[in-house]
Amino acid sequence: MSGGLYGVATNRTYRRAGFGAAVRRGSRPAIVVVDLTRGFTEDSYPSGADLTEVVAATTRLIEAARPAEVPVIFTAIAYTEAEASGDAVAWLRKAPGMRALVEGSEAVAVDPRLPMRPGHDHLVVKKGASAFFGTGLAATLTGLGRDTVVVCGATTSGCVRATVVDAVQSGFPVLVPRACVGDRAEGPADAALFDIQAKYGDVVTLDDAVGYIGSVPAPAAPRAARRSHRRGDST
């Protein structure tokens, strides 16, 4: 029997503490794609890694969401020139490699391999790790009537974990498809997923996430549109 990431004793301790219960899955999910911008998905950038497989898995999930019109919200970290070159953002003093994430640069562009629909999908621009911190994401999710958040993106140990924590603290049950999140190194990613599964959300397979998203019923047509269709009205 496998002892898991940290061994049998750790698993026993967490079970005794009452961690790891399954989250409630609602019927109105949204997908939040955290920072799958070129500065994170391409290893030519200081802040990036080759996340080709993560992009492919996330693409599959997004495509499963389209028939049911499940909202897809993308996020991107982007700094002004003054922020990127100055000392106003404390995080950039700790992580200077992210100073390349300047507004308008290719580094902050959503990975072009993702099926983003400009003008349809929402884009949240942020300055910190969590997609909720200093943004209107919680209000957007509430306005869209969403009751569950499926979190994808990068990095697992950084912005993904921070977003998951703030999502559940904002009242949203969270699912994290393991194949849809990526990091620069395996160890920090595994630790973050262990922590998420124990305390904040369910870490699930891609097939499970696709099945869940695919089970969401397509929205009904507006009543006026249905009446018009039945009468054979035209414009």
Note the gap between the termini.
67 Å
Shape: globular
Oligomer: single chain
Largest sheet: 7 strands, parallel
What is the succession of H and E elements? Answer: HEHHEHHEHEHEEHEHH
The rounded Rg comes to 19 Å
Walk me through what this model shows.
The protein has 235 residues and is α/β, with parallel strands linked by helices. The protein is 38% helix and 14% strand. It has ten helices and seven strands. Strands 1, 2, 3, 4, 5, 6 and 7 form a seven-stranded parallel sheet that branches. Helix 3 runs parallel beside helix 9 (206-214) and helix 7 (156-169) runs parallel beside helix 8 (186-199). The mean pLDDT is 92. One of its GO terms (molecular function) is hydrolase activity. InterPro entries: Isochorismatase-like_dom, Isochorismatase-like_hydrls, Isochorismatase-like_sf. This is Isochorismatase family protein. Residues 30-207 form the Isochorismatase-like domain. Keywords: Hydrolase.
List the helices and strands and how they pair.
Blueprint: H1 8-16, E1 29-34, H2 38-41, H3 52-65, E2 72-77, H4 81-85, H5 90-94, E3 122-126, H6 137-143, E4 148-154, H7 156-169, E5 174-177, E6 181-182, H8 186-199, E7 202-204, H9 206-214, H10 223-231
Parallel strand pairs: 1-2, 1-4, 2-3, 4-5, 4-6, 5-7
Helix pairs in contact: 3-9, 7-8
InterPro entries: Isochorismatase-like_dom, Isochorismatase-like_hydrls, Isochorismatase-like_sf
GO molecular function: hydrolase activity
Protein name: Isochorismatase family protein
